[in-house]
Write a structure and sequence with these properties.
Multihaem_cyt_sf, 409 residues, binds heme C, alpha+beta, 22% strand, four-stranded antiparallel sheet, single chain
């Protein structure tokens, strides 16, 4: 053990020396990443991992926070569909002026408050919410866009009779939806903790190093040794225990919890218990919300309980690819354990015939409305936020519904 540890320290020293020499030679930092020395930034990965970088650019993770521009805002600015009414005489209008985008409140036709769209949160799978900067704080704009409802809606949990522009966004949104933002200070306001942030330091989206840890030494080494086919100074995922693999995803997929250390510092191999306070309420599968609790729900499933050493998020999800809605691909992953002619296959197989391989998901992981987040539209009322349950089980209702939908086709 001791020698292994010394070996690691030695490797670290060598890596440090290589990096140091680079910086001295250039008399400037090798990489200019706001996270500091050790990090290289996503642009530095392209030269050697081009196909991974290109595929990854399509994913929800990569696009989960973006600068607010024409391409990234999914909602319409057309004047037949760019309003949200709070009352007949009170509305917010989404406006485009000289290439910039604004939410402007009008009361009885008079312009009241107007703020720009600066940041988009949400890749556009279901919903997008928008932030604007003022000094060292980001604030949420009053109107959100529902991709499902294809309409502008009131931001979640906002009053329905007045327009608010004053909701400060905590650093937590960035901790799960971005790769970094620097906290420059904190202040108390009406008993609430307000984080002050450096807006120049935002690293949009979830980048390679958010999941793989700092990569500057790896880049420096591989550039110096182009013939080297093996990776150095970057953690090898395969060597992690199953629970470590799961916890790397669970930093953001185990619901809202209070951090003790900045989740930005979480690296593969670290443990959740060193970052978050334990959940004070022990929740059961029945009370866990489907929204964001994939980690706990999966662990409650019979599949996981019967495959604790081998099953992780990566069993079904390829972290570098956009595979959304491809039920056939996901079903193949179920069948890596539940082989079609094996003893653990579906009891419904005789009834379903050959088509069973197309979709195990709608019957065993149905999409269920989140109890936490629903959006209020002007015309259609509440828009359900459907989330795939990671409690893999037998669902009689979902089964009837799926059978009916197949018959109706
Ligand atoms: C100069 C070339 C080069 C650059 C730049 C580079 N890598 Fe690599 N990387 C390699 C080589 C070579 C391997 C080993 C072969 C493979 O797995 O693709 C590798 C492997 C990896 C692995 C797998 C490690 C393992 O053992 O499982 C990860 C993760 C990785 N790189 C991440 C990154 C990240 C993140 C960046 C950008 C910050 C980056 N690489 C930049 C050359 C490079
Ligand atoms: C830094 C936080 C973070 C980490 C770490 C993270 N995720 Fe996510 N994940 C998110 C957020 C935020 C979303 C929602 C993105 C959106 O649509 O805006 C998401 C969405 C997803 C989706 C839905 C994708 C889609 O296209 O529908 C899957 C699947 C997923 N994550 C799996 C994983 C897996 C597997 C891991 C670990 C290998 C992981 N995540 C690690 C934050 C994270
Ligand atoms: C603990 C991590 C975490 C925190 C903190 C967090 N989110 Fe999320 N958020 C997620 C994950 C994971 C998803 C995808 C959830 C799913 O589909 O189950 C998501 C989804 C979303 C979506 C929908 C994205 C889409 O395209 O479907 C929006 C919008 C969003 N979050 C906004 C916010 C805002 C605003 C905050 C801060 C008030 C915030 N989130 C804080 C993890 C987090
Ligand atoms: C959401 C977390 C996440 C993000 C973001 C991410 N990776 Fe990975 N990466 C993983 C996981 C998990 C594995 C292990 C996959 C497996 O078990 O085969 C992996 C494996 C790898 C490997 C080695 C095996 C392979 O699949 O090629 C390379 C190289 C790699 N990643 C590079 C990158 C690069 C470059 C980026 C940025 C474009 C990136 N990763 C972004 C989670 C992530
Ligand atoms: C890593 C292997 C593995 C994968 C992948 C897997 N399962 Fe399982 N599953 C198991 C094990 C182990 C059990 C426990 C019962 C047993 O041993 O037969 C189980 C049990 C089940 C059960 C019975 C649950 C109950 O409550 O009685 C269903 C249904 C099921 N799996 C469906 C699926 C579906 C659908 C997928 C894909 C989304 C899937 N499984 C993926 C290993 C796996
Ligand atoms: C047995 C297979 C399986 C495993 C293991 C698994 N997932 Fe999934 N996951 C799925 C399927 C199937 C979907 C639905 C995909 C779709 O609709 O495109 C999904 C969807 C998701 C989504 C999007 C949910 C939504 O409806 O918006 C997130 C986020 C996610 N998974 C995260 C995770 C995380 C984190 C883990 C590990 C704790 C994990 N998954 C483990 C099969 C799995
Ligand atoms: C039409 C809905 C439906 C589809 C599609 C479906 N299942 Fe099932 N599955 C069920 C129902 C319902 C049961 C419980 C049947 C019973 O107990 O008689 C079940 C039972 C199971 C079981 C438990 C078997 C046992 O020994 O108790 C497994 C494992 C399973 N399914 C896996 C799968 C896999 C893998 C797929 C895709 C290849 C799949 N199912 C597709 C509805 C479905």
């Amino acid at each position: 053990m001791l020698t292994q540890r010394w070996f690691k320290i030695l490797l670290g020293l060598i890596a440090g020396t290589i990096l140091f020499q680079y910086c001295v030679q250039r008399s400037e930092p090798l990489f200019n990443d706001p996270r500091g020395m050790g990090y290289a930034g996503a642009a530095a990965c392209v030269s050697c991992h081009a196909s991974t970088v290109a595929a990854y650019a399509q994913t929800a993770h990569h696009n989960t926070t973006t600068p607010a521009d024409e391409k990234n805002i999914k909602g319409s600015f057309h004047n037949d569909s760019n309003r949200f009414h709070y009352r007949t005489d009170l509305e917010v209008v989404m406006e485009k002026k000289e290439g910039k985008f604004f939410q402007t409140a009008y009361e009885a036709g008079q312009q009241k408050t107007s703020f720009p769209f600066d940041i988009v949160i949400g890749s556009g799978r279901k919903a997008q919410t928008f932030l604007y900067w003022q000094d060292s704080n980001a604030y949420q704009l009053p109107v959100t866009y529902s991709v499902i409802g294809k309409c502008w809606v009131n931001s979640p949990n906002y009053p329905t009779d007045k327009v608010r522009f004053d909701r400060v966004i905590p650093i937590g949104c960035f901790e799960c939806h971005a790769s970094f933002v620097e906290r420059t200070g904190m202040r108390e306001e009406k008993g609430y903790r307000i984080d002050q942030l450096n807006k120049q330091s935002v690293i949009y989206g979830i980048d390679c190093e958010r999941c793989h840890g700092p990569g500057a030494a790896h880049v420096a080494y591989q550039q110096e040794h182009p013939a080297e086919k093996l990776a150095k100074y970057i953690l090898t995922y395969k060597n992690l225990t199953n629970i470590q693999k799961m916890e790397n995803c669970a930093t953001c997929h185990s619901g809202l919890r209070e951090p003790m250390r900045s989740p930005f510092l979480f690296k593969p191999g670290n443990f959740l218990k060193d970052f978050y306070r334990p959940d004070t309420v022990k929740q059961s599968a029945a009370t866990l919300d489907v929204h964001g609790n994939q980690y706990q729900l999966l662990m409650e499933s019979q599949c996981f309980k019967g495959a604790v050493e081998t099953m992780s998020c990566g069993t079904c999800h390829d972290p570098h690819k956009m595979e959304r809605n491809d039920m056939k691909v996901f079903s193949t992953r179920c069948m890596s354990c539940h082989q079609q002619n094996g003893p653990k296959f579906c009891k419904m197989a005789p009834k379903l015939g050959a088509t069973i391989v197309n979709n195990c998901i709608d019957c065993h992981m149905p999409a269920i409305p989140s109890k936490l987040i629903s959006l209020q539209s002007e015309q259609a009322g509440s828009i359900a936020n459907l989330v795939r349950s990671h409690l893999i089980a037998k669902y009689p209702d979902a089964t009837s519904k799926y059978l009916k939908s197949v018959r109706d086709e």
